[in-house]
């Protein structure tokens, strides 16, 4: 039986796919770093920093070998009771809740999306020119 | 702020939302939750107000991100969340996602919406 559907671009042009992925990976990582920097700036603005553990707990990491999935988060724990206080500060509706992470994400979300689209165009153009 | 006003109007004009709250419209709080309150209640918080769509050194759109926290003591918030989503989407808000959160005896569901308005 004949194979149905459209073939993947990566099957027809493996080099093109690699060229685009390289550009996208760079933009993903740069975008994640921008969110991280803004989250850290929000922490500096909203809290009186005492130990710096919350700020130090904001991280970015590759979630796949390919580098096409990047995770961003904050995981500051209180060692005494094991409470993830980064989560409490971010999501609590009470007076001690001061969202610092999601505002950073929303500030850069559209910009990162645009940059990734631009990277795809750039990757394709570089491949065409080469 | 127009987004916040639109949101409050949309919430208070939805009988399915208001009837599900402990004290009707009095169970909607802005920015922070009260120390004591009957469950369920809502907390409405503005997270961001960012400019968007630039042209000629000018931004043409306000993108306001609003967070609504449904605070309960028993975790029964699904119907209320659905009704809030229906009401707000009809009022022009874009649903951005839900998160679940527990703190002491409270079980919360957090809904986030984006509202874009022309400047």
Features:
heterodimer, A: 130 residues, mainly alpha, two-stranded antiparallel ribbon, 2 strands, 59% helix, B: alpha+beta, 5-stranded mixed β-sheet, 3 helices, 5 strands, 24% helix
Tell me about this structure.
The complex is a heterodimer of chains A (130) and B (119). Helices cover 59% and strands 8% of the residues of chain A. Chain A is built from five helices and two strands; from the N terminus they run αααββαα. Chain A has helices spanning 9-12, 14-46, 53-57, 85-91, 102-129, and strands at 58-62, 70-74. In chain A, strands 1-2 form a two-stranded antiparallel ribbon. The longest helix of chain A is centred in the first third of the chain and has 33 residues, at 14-46. Chain A is elongated and about 55 Å long. The two termini of chain A are 37 Å apart. The mean pLDDT of chain A is 85. Chain B contains three helices and five strands. Chain B has a five-stranded mixed beta sheet with strand order 1-2-3-5-4. At the A-B interface, helix 4 and helix 5 of A face strand 2, strand 3, strand 4 and strand 5 of B.
